[in-house]
Automatic annotation (TrEMBL):
<feature type="binding site">
    <location>
        <position position="48"/>
    </location>
    <ligand>
        <name>ATP</name>
    </ligand>
</feature>
<dbReference type="InterPro" id="IPR011009">
    <property type="entry name" value="Kinase-like_dom_sf"/>
</dbReference>
<dbReference type="GO" id="GO:0007059">
    <property type="term" value="P:chromosome segregation"/>
</dbReference>
<dbReference type="InterPro" id="IPR008271">
    <property type="entry name" value="Ser/Thr_kinase_AS"/>
</dbReference>
<keyword id="KW-0547">Nucleotide-binding</keyword>
<protein>
    <recommendedName>
        <fullName>Protein kinase domain-containing protein</fullName>
    </recommendedName>
</protein>
<dbReference type="InterPro" id="IPR017441">
    <property type="entry name" value="Protein_kinase_ATP_BS"/>
</dbReference>
<dbReference type="GO" id="GO:0004674">
    <property type="term" value="F:protein serine/threonine kinase activity"/>
</dbReference>
<dbReference type="GO" id="GO:0034501">
    <property type="term" value="P:protein localization to kinetochore"/>
</dbReference>
<dbReference type="GO" id="GO:0033316">
    <property type="term" value="P:meiotic spindle assembly checkpoint signaling"/>
</dbReference>
<keyword id="KW-0723">Serine/threonine-protein kinase</keyword>
<dbReference type="GO" id="GO:0000776">
    <property type="term" value="C:kinetochore"/>
</dbReference>
<feature type="domain" description="Protein kinase">
    <location>
        <begin position="19"/>
        <end position="290"/>
    </location>
</feature>
<dbReference type="GO" id="GO:0004712">
    <property type="term" value="F:protein serine/threonine/tyrosine kinase activity"/>
</dbReference>
<dbReference type="Pfam" id="PF00069">
    <property type="entry name" value="Pkinase"/>
</dbReference>
<dbReference type="GO" id="GO:0005524">
    <property type="term" value="F:ATP binding"/>
</dbReference>
<keyword id="KW-0808">Transferase</keyword>
């Protein structure tokens, strides 16, 4: 997917600022993320780069979809800069043959979690779990106030800054809901471990219906992993098995009863199989575990 930028390369973006590439931070299906320096301020930041102009005619549809995803993400990020402090800050961008977003740099939440998904105990201190949970719930609360569903919440799409603040990233598959509407039918795209059951239920061949409450489920899975050190579906090895399990899930997801009381209670609410029985982000924000940490 496009050329790899080598360390030392300089890029000039929309605001006229020039950025020097230091190295690559990570790579996704359609994007690469680099660590770079703003030559004007000397600030270290992240550059997310997506190739928007593929020359191969056989991947034209994929290229169009990629461009739409990038434009979607950039539009939401810019819209949320002044209203949601938990959305990653954008400093600059460019959108020509290559889409580039210059933004805050942090460590993915994934790096704070166990590397193997087995019940081996958490790595995070309970106070850190609560601090991160508070910020994530507040971030999604503000996102939903803007009528935006993230739809792909997972540790890879959350970064932690050096001061401990969490930031939500990657809004490429996010979508807006009309007022008084809490869900709509659309094609699911995401990671099975963090996806809600309704994302995989396809009645009579139509696409699934999901919305705000799917984000609540994903938040619950993230809290589960932070507090317990593993994900609930750890016993299923393939994505097919996970999707099939969620599609046919009839009862609320089983929860480790060794978890702290406050965590356990929050999870029983977030991981209810029927989205109508899950709390809204506003309701979750006043839950005792969010407010008091227990």
């Amino acid at each position: 997917m496009g050329d790899i930028f080598q360390p030392g390369k300089h890029l000039t973006l929309r605001n006229g600022n020039t950025y020097q590439i230091y190295g690559m931070l990570g790579m996704g299906l359609h994007s690469k993320v680099y660590t770079a320096r703003d030559n004007k301020t000397n600030q270290t930041l992240a550059l997310k780069v997506i190739d928007l102009n593929h020359k191969n005619m056989y991947v034209k549809a994929s290229t169009i979809s990629r461009r739409q995803s990038f434009q979607n993400e950039l539009r939401y990020l810019l819209r949320l800069q002044k209203t949601n402090p938990y959305i990653v800050r954008v400093f600059d961008y460019d959108i020509r043959n290559t889409g580039i977003i210059a933004m805050e740099q942090g460590l993915p939440l994934r790096q704070y979690l166990p590397k193997t998904n087995v019940p081996s105990g958490p790595l995070l201190h309970p106070s850190t779990v609560h601090q991160m949970w508070y910020q994530l719930v507040d971030g999604i609360r503000l996102l939903h106030q803007s009528r935006i569903v993230h739809s792909d919440l997972k540790p890879e799409n959350i970064i932690v800054l050096s001061n401990g603040q969490t930031k939500i990233i990657d809004l490429g598959v996010s979508f807006t809901l009309p007022r008084m509407v809490s869900a709509k039918r659309r094609i699911w795209a995401g990671t099975p471990d963090y996806s809600s059951p309704e994302m995989h239920r396809i009645p009579k061949g139509v696409v699934p219906k999901f919305g705000y409450k799917s984000d609540i489920w994903s938040l619950g899975i993230i809290l589960y992993e932070m507090a317990a050190g593993y994900r609930p579906l750890y016993g299923l090895s393939t994505n097919y098995e996970k999707i099939n399990y969620l599609r046919h899930l009839k009862h609320d997801l089983p929860i480790d009863q060794n978890l702290e009381k406050g965590v356990y209670n929050a999870l029983t609410q977030c991981l209810r199989v029927d989205p109508k029985h899950r709390p809204t982000a506003e309701q979750l924000f006043v839950h005792p575990y969010v407010v008091n940490g227990y």
